[in-house]
Design a protein that fits this description.
The complex is a heterotrimer of chains A (about 325), B (about 300) and C (about 325). Chain A is an alpha/beta fold and about 325 residues long. Helices cover about 30% and strands about 20% of the residues of chain A. Chain A has two domains: about 210 residues, P-loop containing nucleotide triphosphate hydrolases (Rossmann fold); about 90 residues, no CATH class. The model of chain A has no long low-confidence stretch (mean pLDDT about 90). By secondary structure, chain C is of the alpha/beta class. The chains are: A alpha/beta (about 325), B mainly alpha (about 300), C alpha/beta (about 325). Bound molecules: adenosine-5'-diphosphate (2 copies), iron/sulfur cluster (SF4) and magnesium ion (2 copies). One adenosine-5'-diphosphate (ADP) sits at the interface of chains C and B.
Chain lengths: ~325, ~300, ~325
């Protein structure tokens, strides 16, 4: 097993609120690692801290505490100037391709920009490299002279992806790259990402709230709830043998586009609580059908259940963590 | 949402020619068209003045002092016996020669300040904005008076002082746009790509943040014309017999009471027309650049 | 007689361009379907297909430059296209209710939710304030809002997305409509909350025998919450039938493409699909509107395809080759 490209330990991020002394506990003590060539999915409901983690590991924001080792070096508090050369090796693709590109630059210049910043290539070389990149993301040459406003959402997202892979990064974060795209456009982007996964060998952190997508694209899945990882396991295990009650409920809410699939629903009450006044104990206790008294006071640690399976629930130890045993499906 | 808008946009066939475009602009903002027409007229005066002026603007006709308007001197003559009509035309050159560099200097100083403070935020932004607020407490004319009086009443000094004094206006407009743009994912995406700060400011933010400043520039040019004329009128700016409107108005004011109204009225009317034209152009530009503003204010 | 019959509905956007030429966007061109009381119809399609516009046409809520240029809409046998504004007002919010796309913006931010419910009720029923209040509280309870009497005083901004959607459902159902149209009722909600809202909608629709149209772009929602489905493309319905029949044996190439595009069905290893741009409503091809994007298009497709009934009763598709068994992609 190779050394991880990215190793995150005890990551915490608080945001200030308008009211003094109050903070948003966006990310609370998150640790995980990503190895070269691996695609890790990150799922969770909105506000669970996915984007904040994605931005923190690329140091688009500075963590409150914790360490972020990228290729063995702790970048958690490096100044922007020192980060800049590293940015060639770590890239991001955002959710909304309409907003993620400078409207005043042509597609060609947008794709060339990372080459301009991180390589010594001259103008001619950059141009031909950009054409090659466009070809890799299946964007026709004729489109390169267009401005973002003249491209469709799917084409824009291809430009974003071309930018992200231009410098052959070691790590790419995808923050819901297909959420704002239509079904058939989304399919094209997912196919492309699948191609690039094997072609580039880059490690990928794939953030999404779409369970179908995460199942398709990732080797391993992190499940987030209220700024904490509640479970981490290989994709198959997450969908079939989720240990944490939240994972089980989340997976049971997934609606496959096939009426013949029988659903085993565990519908949760209520909604994700506010990350401002973080409750003590297990973050999921307020909605958990299995919660017992101590869940409200003791914070469950993320414990290993197997070689690559971790979960954070107090009731796993006593074998009382199955929702289907507790509630009629 | 964006998807639907997109398909509609792509679907729209290319619209007609340049004429259709002009008609479209005229329909959307008549203010802009009138303003532009006035300014073009004054620009024509400035450019074609050698052919338009019947007399040399600084040639005195000693026998024709304070001559009333007639066929020879359309706007009459002043107390030096100089032709007011020719002087009004020549004054257009001064108006542009002051307004244009004042705007350029104001932008050259104000835009980078606005870009940087808006992008950086924090204490630096706080201090700069407080300083600008403090400056605002004094009416700009008083500041301009004080500085020009101290530095000496030359054309160059007037231009420099007005340009510097006006830079906070651009800084503010640009800063406000940058604050809005900063929330845009493309700025974060530029950081993530590894852009140094100067590139983010000047390549990524400036072209998108300049609209408001551009629209302001016409209004600020009007301000420059007005203030420089006021300075001249008060006697601290450009000095007579330079054919500058403010100086001419000052001269004319003395003869108002004695009945030689033409000395001051004609340069005054030219000044008002140009200031009005520039203001209309600025308003029209803002309507065209931001149609929502028009809907909200009308 | 069906509860609702929509027959060959054409809604166009007719506007004058800057150059004074008239442009017509044929946003709906020939929408036909029928809905029986007690059944739920899923109206599915990609962005811009005309789903919302169909709902607005039925509700008589079109605004210029949109106009119904041909077709009939019959609600319990009454024609709605020719109905007067007064007649429509009496129906809207009474016998026909609409839940629009964004729960946040469809509540009046300056009125307490209880007062909004009461106002909607009293606009259609001759009841005194106390009775209306009682009814509103009962409705809040029936959509699962805890402590409904207290919630009557809540302001819209105090509600979470899921809560706001429940209130809108209560508001839609307070006058016991016989037809309910829900436009993307769960878009933007988290999966676990989506499950709650969909379960609630299904329960209420079943209990009251309401005929419902659920507009969505999520095939999973259709597969598990609808009885029937109508697939929209470029302003027409291209296939309709029972959910089981259409998903099990899709006969229109567009339906097949849509199903194959879902992440769950996507076969990323099978090579790339051709990029298909969205249809151009200003210049739809003659004959079959899908002709220029269709992988199976043949010469015959230059003629408008008829509705062809296939297999299962009620299952039909608008494709010349619909009777050919599809190779379920
Ligand atoms: N810049 C910010 N300032 C204040 N709060 C923030 C900021 N960014 C995110 N948050 C808060 O942090 C929490 C996690 O947000 P985010 O990481 O965006 O979640 P997700 O991507 O999972 O939806 C949310 O409660 C959000 O409101
Ligand atoms: N004012 C307009 N002029 C021309 N076309 C419009 C206008 N408004 C909406 N449309 C078009 O009408 C079509 C139907 O839109 P809509 O019913 O909202 O789609 P859906 O709800 O299926 O996403 C879209 O393709 C959209 O581009
Ligand atoms: S720790 Fe308790 S509350 Fe948390 S998930 Fe496990 S059982 Fe539920
Ligand atoms: Mg996010
Ligand atoms: Mg819609």
């Amino acid at each position: 097993m190779s050394a991880p490209i990215l190793q995150v330990d005890g990551l915490v991020k608080h945001f200030p609120t308008a009211r003094k002394g109050q903070v948003v506990h966006a990310v609370n003590d998150v640790s995980f690692a990503i190895r070269a060539g691996e695609t890790v999915g990150m799922v969770g409901e909105s506000g669970s801290g996915k984007s904040t983690i994605g931005r923190a590991v690329l140091r688009l924001l500075e963590p409150t505490s914790g360490s972020i080792h990228f290729q063995g070096r702790d970048i958690a508090h490096l100044p922007e100037r020192a980060l800049r050369p590293l940015r060639a090796d770590m890239q991001i693709v955002f959710q909304d391709p309409w907003a993620a590109l400078n409207p005043r630059l042509r597609a060609r210049d947008l794709i060339e920009e990372p080459l301009l910043l991180h390589t010594d290539l001259d103008k001619v070389a950059r141009r031909s490299r950009a054409a090659g990149l466009a070809d890799r993301v299946h964007l026709s040459d004729a489109l390169l002279d267009r401005y973002p406003a003249e491209l469709s959402g799917g084409q824009l997202q291809r430009v974003c992806i071309a930018r992200a892979i231009a410098t052959n990064p070691k790590l790419i974060v995808f923050d819901e790259p297909t959420s704002s795209l239509d079904l058939s456009v989304r399919a094209g982007i997912l196919e492309l990402l699948h191609e690039l996964r094997t072609e580039t060998g880059a490690a990928m952190l794939f953030i999404t709230h779409d369970l179908g997508t995460v199942k398709l694209i990732s080797d391993r899945v992190l499940v987030l709830y209220l700024g904490r990882i509640v479970e981490e396991a290989p994709t198959g295990a997450i969908f079939e043998r989720g240990a944490h009650p939240y994972t089980q409920a989340l997976m049971s809410a997934h609606l496959p586009p096939d009426p013949s699939v029988r659903l085993r629903r565990h519908v949760l009450e209520g909604e994700i609580p506010s990350p401002i006044g973080l409750p003590p104990g297990c973050g999921f206790a307020s909605r958990c059908p299995l919660a017992v008294e101590r869940c409200r006071t003791l914070s469950p640690p993320l414990e290993a259940l197997g070689p690559s399976h971790r979960a954070a629930c107090l009731r796993i130890a006593e074998g009382a963590n199955r929702l289907d045993a507790a509630t009629p499906a | 949402m964006s998807g639907a808008a997109e398909s509609a946009r792509i679907a729209l066939p290319a619209s007609g020619g340049a004429l259709a475009h002009v008609i479209g602009v005229a329909r959307r903002s008549p203010t802009f068209v009138i303003g532009a027409a006035i300014i073009l007229a004054f620009a024509a005066l400035a450019v074609f003045h050698p052919w338009l002026m019947p007399h040399d603007p600084v040639r005195a006709f000693p026998t024709q002092v304070l001559h009333a308007p007639d066929a020879q001197f359309w706007f009459g003559t002043d107390s030096n016996g100089m032709d007011v009509f020719s002087r009004v035309i020549y004054g257009a050159i001064y108006a542009f020669a002051i307004a244009a560099p004042v705007v350029v200097i104001g932008m050259a100083i104000g835009v980078p300040i606005g870009l940087f403070t808006g992008y950086r935020g924090g204490w630096l932004d706080e201090i700069v904005m407080r300083f600008f607020d403090a400056l605002r407490v004094f009416p700009s004319i008083i500041l301009a008076l004080a500085v020009v009086a101290a530095a000496g009443p030359s054309l160059l000094n007037v231009i420099l002082v007005l340009g510097i004094l006006d830079s906070p206006v651009y800084a503010r407009v640009v800063r406000a746009e940058v604050l809005a743009l900063r929330a845009n994912a493309y700025v974060e995406s530029a950081v993530a790509a590894g852009n140094p700060t100067w590139r983010i400011l000047f390549v990524h933010l400036m072209p998108n943040a300049l609209q408001g400043a551009m629209a302001q520039s016409a209004v600020r040019a009007a301000w420059a014309v007005r203030i420089s004329a006021t300075l001249a009128f008060l006697g601290v700016g450009i000095q007579p017999p330079t054919p500058e409107w403010g100086a001419m108005i000052r001269q004319g004011a003395e003869y108002m009471v004695t009945g030689q109204w033409w000395v001051g009225i004609f340069p005054g009317a030219a000044l008002i027309a140009l200031v009005l034209g520039l203001n209309m152009l600025g308003d029209g530009l803002q309507d065209l650049l931001d149609p929502r503003r028009k809907a909200a204010t009308r | 007689m069906s509860l609702l019959e929509v027959e060959d509905l054409h809604t166009h956007f007719i506007a004058r361009g800057l150059d004074n030429r008239i442009r017509t966007a044929r946003a709906l061109n020939g929408v036909s379907f029928a809905l029986e009381a007690g059944r739920t119809l899923g109206l599915v399609g990609e962005t811009g297909a005309g789903k919302s516009l169909t709902a607005l046409s039925i509700m008589g809520l079109l605004r210029a430059p949109a106009r119904i240029v041909a077709g009939a809409i019959r609600f319990e046998g009454r024609d709605l296209v020719g109905a007067s504004e007064d007649e429509l007002n009496a129906l809207r919010g009474g016998s026909i209710a609409l839940i629009v796309q964004s729960p946040r913006t469809s509540l009046d931010p300056l009125t307490r939710v209880g007062d909004q419910l009461i106002a909607v009720h009293r606009a259609h029923r001759q009841v005194d304030a106390a009775a209306a209040r009682e009814r509103a509280i009962a409705m809040l309870a029936s959509v699962g809002i805890p402590d409904p009497a207290r919630r009557m005083n809540a302001w819209p901004h105090e509600l979470s997305g899921g809560m706001a959607q429940r209130i809108l459902i209560a508001m839609a159902l307070i006058n016991e409509p016989r037809l309910l149209i829900a436009d993307e009722p769960t878009t933007g909600l988290d999966v676990t909350v989506q499950a709650q809202v969909l379960d609630l909608l299904r329960r209420l629709v079943r209990e009251k025998g309401i005929g419902a149209i659920v507009i969505t772009h999520d095939l999973g929602v259709v597969a598990h919450y609808c009885d029937d489905v109508a697939v929209m493309y470029a302003g027409s319905i291209v296939e309709s039938g029972s959910v089981r029949a259409v998903f099990g044996d899709p006969r229109h190439p567009y339906t097949r493409n849509l199903i194959a595009s879902t992440p769950e069905k996507l076969q990323v290893d099978r090579g790339r699909r051709p990029a298909v741009p969205p249809p151009n409503l200003y210049a739809l091809p003659d004959g079959c509107h899908y002709r220029d994007r269709c992988p199976d298009a043949a010469e015959l497709c230059a003629q408008a395809p008829p509705w062809i009934a296939v297999g299962d009763p009620g299952h039909c598709a608008r494709c010349h080759f619909a009777s050919r068994q599809g190779t379920a992609a």
